[in-house]
Amino acid sequence: MKALILAAGYGTRLYPLTKEYPKPLLPIAGRPIVEYIAEKLVKVKDLSEIVVVTNDKFYPHFLEWTNAFEKQCGSSQRIKVINDGTKTQQDRLGAIGDICFALEKEHIQEDIVVFGGDNLFEESVDDFVSFSLNKKPQVSIGIYDIGKKGLAQKYGVVQIDGDGKLVGFAEKPPEPQSSLIATCLYYIPEGKLRCFKEYTHDAQNEKDASGSFISWLSKKDAVYGFVFKKHWYDIGDPQVYQEADRIFATLKKERG
Known about the structure:
Layout: E1 2-7, E2 27-28, E3 31-32, H1 33-41, E4 49-54, H2 59-73, E5 78-83, H3 94-105, E6 112-116, E7 119-121, H4 126-135, E8 139-145, E9 156-160, E10 166-171, E11 180-188, H5 194-201, H6 210-220, E12 223-228, E13 232-234, H7 238-254
Parallel strand pairs: 1-4, 1-6, 4-5, 8-12
Antiparallel strand pairs: 2-3, 6-11, 7-13, 8-11, 9-10
């Protein structure tokens, strides 16, 4: 099993913070966002490697962070940073494009865990991985209950049955049917990796929003969702960033 951390965006909604600095490396309670992700992933059993996909502009930043993180945690799991070659917001590959890029460049032919580099979870991912392994050979995704349907309008809204199977998916609906939203956390078994090529083969399919891929896949095949209970943030704008920093700083203080 390998992990992909998607970190090739340009974070334009967080300018000027991210004009010359990558969003996943912004500090939350004194630590880079991506560090929370990596710390959880290095604890996952049978995970052989973490691949961070970034762009040409921020490639040096992630190399520097990777070296510091590996020394700090003494992890035996290798973290590899790869450069998708893009230099601007206009020529970015998008989330699905970067997944395809990583799969091809690294010749990946095993199960993968995909993590958005700006997704911040309080919980570990152990239960999610166990859930996903139990649902193989189907794809599983992380889901978060945002609490109110009105708050779900900015996200991909999902509906699941009693077994966790997705029975509905709508991207940013004006009238959400549930308060469950899709996060950028996916478990893709090796046998389903081909679905990315199938999806990108149709030029009309959205290459940037990974939720569009999940929506497309759920109409063709069974997809399962694991609901996270604790704090989760998609660090997309200054308000969310500030709230996440405040909450995680409070949690850090409470835990000593």
